[in-house]
Write a structure and sequence with these properties.
By secondary structure, this protein is of the alpha+beta class. It has helices spanning about 35-40, 105-110, 125-135; strands spanning about 45, 50-60, 65-75, 85-90, 90-95, 100-105. It is about 15% helix and about 25% strand. A hairpin with a 5-residue loop joins β1 and β2 (about 50-60). It is globular. A six-stranded mixed β-sheet has the order 4-3-2-1-6-5.
Length: about 150
């Protein structure tokens, strides 16, 4: 289910379309400003059009107000054996045509990414854990100038 289908509040109802249905990225709340609840469960694909899973959670940095990670579910069957991955928000791009996210990673790369079980979440506030995740996905952690 994509963000428009999950929109129970009418956030995206006609707000970002021009005549003929073409997206207008300068009007409406999305895709520049989107409801977090509507993003939960969105599919994540890679550039090779392989399904990498879906977003289970969005992690906010409460110090900065920024989105830090999307927690991606990958693998398993009917929720059994699935592995969770914290993917830096900056590693994802929104595909507004297909209404899904794109992650620049092959399935093999994601399978070997640092992941965790739903019953054993990592300490995401740990600086060494954060560095490892950002190094793996080739992103840089956001540094709030107020905290420097």
């Amino acid at each position: 289910m994509n963000y428009q289908e999950r929109d129970s509040l009418g956030i995206y109802a006609g707000a970002n379309a021009l005549e003929g249905g073409a997206p207008d990225h300068d009007r409406g709340p999305g895709p520049h400003l989107m409801g977090a609840d509507t993003l939960m469960g969105n599919d994540v694909f890679n550039a090779q059009d392989e399904d990498l899973g879906d977003i289970k959670e969005i992690m906010l940095d409460m110090r900065t107000g920024r989105v830090a990670y999307a927690v991606l579910s990958f693998g398993g069957f009917l929720g059994m054996g699935e592995k969770l991955f914290a993917v830096p928000w900056d590693a994802l791009t929104l595909d507004t045509v297909n209404k899904r996210f794109v992650l620049d990673a092959s399935k093999d790369r994601l399978e070997s990414a640092p992941g965790f079980d739903k019953d054993a979440w990592p300490d995401m506030a740990d600086a060494s854990w954060e560095k490892g995740i950002h190094d793996y996905y080739g992103t840089k952690p956001y540094i709030d100038p107020r905290l420097s």
